[in-house]
Amino acid sequence: MKDPENPEISLEVYEAATPLERAHGLLGTTEVGEGRGLLLRGRQVHTIGMSFTIDAVHLGADGRILRIRTLKPWRLGPMVLKARWVLELDAGAAARLGLRTGGFLVREP
Prior knowledge:
109 residues, mainly beta, Jelly Rolls, 10% helix
């Protein structure tokens, strides 16, 4: 994914596309990885069963960043009704990348 307004922001994103991939998410891992993210279709994520803190970036259908929240392990994230996707990043990665509410992330062709 890229920020069209800031070409320096670029992420290698893995989309959890199947029901099994979505159910598994980041369970059993210890990090997402620098410059990487997990993209989930939905309006809400949780960190139940996880051992590390993540940034949850809620995206609209057009890629607009609607909300960014840091979630500690064993938490239920906010339900963002207008979200179509949630991008999970290592804790602090959203700030390091300069992501902000109102900005955009788009998939590369």
